[in-house]
Amino acid sequence: MNQSHISWDRIRADFPILDQQVHGQPLIYFDNAATSQKPRAVLDALRHYYEHDNSNVHRGMHALSMRATDAYEAARVKLARYLNAASAEEIVFTRGTTESINLVAQTWGTKFLREGDVILLTEMEHHSNLVPWQLLAERTGATLRFLPINDRHELALDRLDEFLTSQVKLFSFVHISNSLGTINPVAELCAAARKVGALTLVDAAQSAGHLPLDVQAIGCDFLALSGHKMCGPTGIGALYGKKTVLESLPPWHGGGEMIVSVGYEKSTYKQPPYRFEAGTPNIAGAIALGAAVDYIEAIGREAIFEHDCQLAQYAQKRLGEIPGLRVLGPPLGGARGGVVSFVMEHAHAHDVVTLADQAGIALRGGHHCTQPLMHKLGLESSARASFYFYNTQAEVDRLIAVLAEGQSRASASFSLPLGELYETVVTDHATRPRNFGKLEEGAVHVHGDNPSCGDTLDLHVQLSPEKVENIKFTGSGCTICMTSASLMTLKLKGKNRAEARRLMHLFHDQVAASPDTEAGRGPRELGDLNVLGGVRKFPQRVKCAMLAWRAFEQALNEADAGVTEGSISTEDAEE
Ligand SMILES: Cc1ncc(COP(=O)(O)O)c(C=O)c1O
User: Fold this and answer.
1) Strands 455-463 and 468-476
2) Rounded to an integer, what distance in angstroms lies between the CA atom of residue 455 and that of residue 547?
């Protein structure tokens, strides 16, 4: 299809948020797989609802309630048409993909799944299409199986028969992988599942706003989507379910709206979709999602898909030109949506994201809620650029220039723009960490995790009643984490316990100071650790700098309690 008749510039102007500067640079928003931006039409729909029609749905006989009900139900009809569902009754409003999948796991799973049954997933699933099934398997005694990926980062379809056996009761898979960008052949997978009598669920979080979807042609039993990834507001999404299948399911949440009649001991329930919509729903969200559907339809999903794919292929090609950078997902020309994840030699994804952020570019770094996939690929994390129809080739060029510059500035270690001294010290310690290793005999061991970043660290501390006799660490993390750990071990070895705690507080005061205060030289006692004072400019990175120190603090606490093994997570720390 030819997109030449479309004025992408004019369309971009529909998104007020894009017209701003970040860190003095025009915003480039490449985090669309996490959430898309919202056009004025959607913002207006929200505002119009609250200014004119706000009222509760279904239970009112007055004018406002009838208007709200009509608009809410009209949104359901729009979504049904958008997905080519057989009727609006097949659309259940939920909070999003995660809730839709949980709804199926808890209603269908509880009623139909038995010990010995198998739920088939794939190795590239988002945690949202993994954890609900793990919980269900624990409850029912069912087993999880995973269709592998091949070295092109596509599903190993040649092994489908081996995994899709008659024990499989449900096959749930992602349409477009949020980590790899891979587009899966959903109709083919559904047809194969039907042959063995398994139901199917398509996780369409990354596809619903990006390409035409026809649930009847796909042949799925369920399909889950999130409004906020397709120009709609947060907190609203939908579950498509084939009518006969939805009708066979028990209610999920109990409460108002989902009942026909209620007695003290027993109630009777409405037909789907209302059976699954207990309580006051997200009325404004559903109406605004309807506006998002109208907006996307007016552009045309074929054109959006073509635009996103072209941009992703262009980005993949240009990124591949940067030395030491590896793009994940299908090779150039493969079936890829608008998602391009990559890893850089010597650069942790969080450093890449912080560097891009300083140039006004919003990327995402981490495990992208696909931790098992990252481990399978031997990675802790990756950086990800994800595109939508308002992104341009010029924006991709800017990203390439920023990354290439970052890569060339420090050949051995990709570092943040915090000055020459910082670069020298960080390059030195991140690539050649001191006191790297383990202590066995009598040492306290603390395992530390920084879930937001994927940093992991194991600290081993040998403590006498007075002082830190020896201290070593292992682990893998971003440059800030590794440098901080390396410098910390140098600083703390031989210090008495009280002094070590005091240094920890001094260091914390340096890195966690207000981002507006200039990082000066810092207290003399901290020495080289003062180069990390600049981290205060990146508040989201303070946890990286503090991971080793929090582990050390825990080691002191463990020793006081007479324990030698412990763990901490920066998730729990308020820095
Ligand atoms: C493939 C995939 N599935 C599920 C989800 C979960 O979506 P939500 O958080 O909107 O429920 C996401 C979100 O990133 C996703 O990318």
Assistant:
1) antiparallel
2) 8
Q: Report which protein residue has its CA nearest ligand 1's atom 7.
A: 97
Distance set, CA 366 to CA 130, 275, 342, 501 (Å): 18, 38, 11, 31
Q: Tell me how far apart the alpha carbons of residues 268 and 266 are, in angstroms, rounded to a whole number.
A: 7
CA of 150 to the centre of ligand 1 (A): 23
Question: For all residues of the chain together, what is the average pLDDT?
Answer: 93
Residue among 211, 369, 371 whose CB has most ligand 1 atoms within 8 A, to mutate: 369
Active site residue 369: yes
Residue 415's pLDDT is 57
Catalytic residue among 190, 369, 478, 544: 369
Mean pLDDT on 455-480: 92
247, 339, 455, 542, 550 from 481: Cα distances, Å: 52, 28, 7, 9, 12
Q: How many CA atoms lie within 13 A of 343 on its CB side?
A: 17
Tokens of 303: 């054109």
Mean pLDDT of 274-299: 97
Distance (Å, whole) CA 221 – CA 199: 6
pLDDT digits (tens, 9 = 90+) for 36-69: 999 999 999 999 999 999 999 987 789 999 999 9
CB 330 within 8 A of CB 371: no
A 10 A CB-CB count for 187 gives 14
Q: Percent of the chain having pLDDT more than 90? A: 77
Instruction: Enter the tokens of residue 359.
Output: 């140039």
Cα 447 to averaged position of ligand 1 atoms, centre (Å): 29
User: How far is ligand 1, taken at its centre, from the CA of residue 168, in Å?
Assistant: 24
**Residue owning the nearest CA to atom 9 of ligand 1:** 98
User: Does the pLDDT of residue 411 top 60, yes or no?
Assistant: no
CA-proximal residue: ligand 1, atom 16 (nearest): 178
| CA–CA gap between residue 213 and residue 50 (Å, rounded) | 31
Q: Where are the alpha helices (DSSP H) in 253-339?
A: 283-299, 301-319
Distance between Cα 205 and ligand 1 center (Å): 5
Residue 228 DSSP label: G
Helix (H) or strand (E) holding 507: helix 497-511
Pairing of strands 361-362, 28-29: parallel
pLDDT at 40: 98
